[in-house]
Write a structure and sequence with these properties.
By secondary structure, the chain is of the alpha+beta class. The chain is about 40% helix and about 20% strand. The protein is built from 7 helices and 11 strands.
Length: about 240
């Protein structure tokens, strides 16, 4: 490449970078002035739609706007050609969980068989779907379940979670309540239940908005109750 072409290419790249910087600066400035709640923008990036930008706030909240932030779009972006929910994929990537980095000290374990396969579950003791899930989960063997008590359905959920967490045998107390409808006895002296607060904070960080939420060892996350066959399939896939 001769000197002239090289200089021309460098100039073009610089102009593109300056243009992108100016667009991002305009979006940040105008959005902060017009919608103060979106003042602290984490990231601005182009989408596949010309003239449309993604803005990310609060870590994982996704919005869309134009180059001057004259319009704000709140909702999901769907690729109609592939039927992919691009917004959902983006949030899933942003909230991906590294299984080995979960704070297992704030969970208790339920071990079945050899316990070789691993699964983390976030559940609320007042969640009817969780009870259905737990009863079906009894069919799954050779698994270690890390149970994160996640009391988000109200004050009573917190009280029931405290009773389970402070029980002498947490796993038994949990199974008694979720599978056999036998409430855990309130401990004579309540223990340190700060783990429950940390679990709720952790769930908010990872956008866990419902229970049960399952996290497999490969980081895949499933919101909602699934049956034993689906659990078996996902355990096999995550191990492979």
């Amino acid at each position: 490449m001769n000197l002239f072409l090289k200089s021309l290419l460098t100039t073009a790249i610089a102009a593109t970078c300056l243009g992108a910087f100016a667009q991002e600066a305009a979006i940040r400035k105008n959005m902060a002035q017009r919608i103060p709640q979106l003042k602290a923008i984490d990231e601005v990036k182009k989408t596949d739609i010309p003239g449309v930008f993604e803005i990310r706030v609060n870590g994982t909240d996704i919005y869309y706007t134009d180059a001057q932030a004259n319009y704000l779009i709140q909702g999901e972006m769907i690729d109609t050609r592939t039927r992919r929910n691009l917004t959902e994929e983006r949030i899933t990537k942003l909230t991906a969980v590294k299984f080995e980095e979960l704070p297992f000290k704030d969970a208790f374990t339920v071990v079945r068989g050899n316990g070789q396969r691993k699964l983390a579950v976030f559940e609320d003791p007042n969640c009817g779907y969780c009870k259905r899930f737990e009863r079906d989960l009894q069919k799954v063997d050779n698994v270690t379940i890390y149970m994160f008590l996640y009391p988000i359905l109200g004050p009573d959920s917190n009280e029931k979670s405290k009773a389970v967490w402070c029980a002498k045998d947490r796993s038994l107390a949990w199974q008694d309540w979720m599978v056999r409808d036998q409430p855990a006895a309130t401990a004579a002296a309540m223990c340190d239940t700060s783990a429950l607060t940390r679990n709720v904070e952790l769930g908010r960080t990872y956008k866990i908005t419902g229970t049960p939420t399952l996290i497999f060892s490969n980081g895949s996350r499933i919101p909602g109750a699934i049956d034993a066959k689906q659990v078996e399939k996902l355990l096999t896939e995550s191990k492979g």
